[in-house]
Amino acid sequence: SQTIHQWPATLVQPVGSPLSLECTVEGTSNPNLYWYRQAAGRGLQLLFYSVGIGQISSEVPQNLSASRPQDRQFILSSKKLLLSDSGFYLCACGQVRVNTEAFFGQGTRLTVV
Amino acid sequence: SQQGEEDPQALSIQEGENATMNCSYKTSINNLQWYRQNSGRGLVHLILIRSNEREKHSGRLRVTLDTSKKSSSLLITASRAADTASYFCFIEGTSYDKVIFGPGTSLSVIP
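Structure tokens for the assembled complex are given below, as produced in the milestone run.
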């Protein structure tokens, strides 16, 4: 079965520092991968999705970027964090049009101070 | 936009009562999934219902799907305090290689 590893679980970073969150997937090949952000007390917002290596689509303009250097690796980055980047970040893996559940990492709680 | 929308956004009930949450969407779908999130943690998959299905059950959960109205409902029967969580509908559309969450319903079950 598919599993997603996402780390770190919590992160406190100063404003202006860089960010790198990593997500790796096991048990599947050529998955669609997604990064979501959840601000405190709010819903989940799709940030990026990727249908293959090197293919990244951005849903909202922001201070973040994503990369997919390998089939089962998805990285969320920022060169300089803003206070507004604080939130809960979730990586997800899905096989679109196969009618299976999506799988989620455990999330990273990022606090920018 | 494929954004799903759950309602109500917040629901408070007594233990033992039933809780009903609804999700509406705007596009054609392959499937619709319901997830639970406890206190800002990771998501737990509850039920997936395909576009050609109308109803599914899993334990105390019942999900219906009406593709003509582009809506789904999640019913939790005989609620328990442990059901307190946020519930999200998750839409896999037919036109895009991405899935979209609704904003969620925050359910509080009072013992």
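The two ends of chain B are 39 Å apart (CA to CA). The longest strand of chain B covers residues 29-37. Further analysis is deferred to the final report.
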